[in-house]
Batch of 2 targets.
Target 1
Amino acid sequence: MRTPNSACVVCSTPLYRRPADLVRARHVACMAHRGEAQRLSGVTEAQRAGLALGREKGTNHRSGYQHREESRAFTASIQRRFSVIRRIEAFSLETPPFHR
Ligand SMILES: [Zn+2]
């Protein structure tokens, strides 16, 4: 048993939590009050954003987000360059090396 360094937010039972976990945690709760403590702490902005997308399968990816214009331009430039390379490769495949 470790020396307690925190307490349950509901019943004040002394609890040990790793210091790194205490930094991240929004609350400390014993196992019995875990659900109640989560209800009291509420939903964070990140959690709200995730919930806004919905819980259905396939709705947790990009459906709720918009691509930025700069990332659109970046992807387009790569695709343009790739298509040029593909055309050059296709041409060089048509003419076998010994005929050039
Ligand atoms: Zn408790």
Note: The first strand starts at residue 6 and ends at 7.
Target 2
Amino acid sequence: MKLLMVGAGLSGAVIARRLAEAGHRATVIDARPHIAGNCHTERDPETGVLVHVYGPHIFHTDDAEVWDYVTRFETFRPYKNRVKTTARGEVFSLPINLHTINQFYRKTLRPDEARAFIAAQADTSITDPQSFEEQALRFVGPDLYEAFFKGYTEKQWGCHPSALPASILKRLPVRFNYDDNYFFHRFQGMPETGYTAMVARILDHPNIDVHLDTPYAPGMADRYGHVFWSGPLDGYFGYDLGRLGYRTLDFERFTETGDWQGCAVMNYGDPEVPYTRITEHKHFAPWEDHAGTVCYREFSRACGPDDIPYYPIRLVEEKALLSDYAARAAGEEGVTFVGRLGTYRYLDMDVTIREALDTARAFLSGGVERGVAGVPG
Ligand SMILES: Cc1cc2nc3c(=O)[nH]c(=O)nc-3n(C[C@H](O)[C@H](O)[C@H](O)COP(=O)(O)OP(=O)(O)OC[C@H]3O[C@@H](n4cnc5c(N)ncnc54)[C@H](O)[C@@H]3O)c2cc1C
């Protein structure tokens, strides 16, 4: 069958490859001038540093099949994400761990002492937390909440933490040891030659052809037996019910020499600092050596019609609109909505690949998915 993938990100590439290997012909189009979607990496011409063009991407997963899949197409170098934050004139370690607690409170607590100490800070009058703010106060109390969650969250989401659901903070966001590895996952790493090189290898198959600078145009689907849509769900329907809310990011690039901040990601929790974090890209490839360095100051704001959608907002209003679009998507024949934009969810790369592999598997066994994954239609 001739198949069309709208989007050359991980979703489109992984589905195309699986189906091409099974003998189908896959055409992959992307509106952008490059493959790999938001994971795109490219060499900065001035410094030679490999830059994560749409923001920092660290690969981490517990899914052995997904890890086997990515390592088939790329060598992954061991990498631990160690994030720092600047707050109130000091640099702290994230996620909040024993070092952070001891530095913040000027103490020398051991794990059990710290656990009891933090439990004593928690606001126990909150029995059924409804908002992100209440959940944070119940877990860590006002001091850590104000220093590490409040300002950052306001900047990231553009609203007060009392307007965000408690579900964002599912577990106690504190470690009572000195482990500062941001992720718990068994497999973690960085692609040696970058995500775009990896996606290029995934797409390199005689049954796949790729067309860049090619936005989907009405009528294109007529020439194909099935479409896998990884563009925006509301975009497929011409936004006719309204736009699903997203946050977008602006990156202010600057270059320096040497090592500018000493780590890959430095968060800024204070509300007076307008950006959320600074990424210094050379630290994602510590095995490379460059005299220059490239940094991105990252600003978050509401996404307008001409901006790149990054993070789905998914508050009450968006959820209602989402279920309207999902109901329409369920009625569309010959189209499967996939990926972070097609299903309007934040998806890490490993989950994106897992879902793409499952979608391809279902298609090959004749069970084409209808509607939008994870959304009642
Ligand atoms: C700032 C940021 C940081 C992240 N960091 C991490 C991380 O550290 N670790 C992690 O695991 N994940 C991370 N992610 C998530 C990761 O980016 C996604 O999992 C991944 O990009 C999803 O791939 P996708 O193919 O579904 O979507 P995308 O990468 O968005 O690809 C969709 C593609 O479709 C194209 N397209 C859209 N509409 C059309 C159209 N009408 N016609 C033609 N083409 C179209 C777009 O141009 C795009 O290239 C991060 C995401 C963001 C936003």
Note: The pocket of flavin-adenine dinucleotide is lined by residues 6-12, 29-32, 37-39, 55-59, 215-216, 230-231, 235, 310, 339-341, 347-350, 352 (CB under 6 Å).
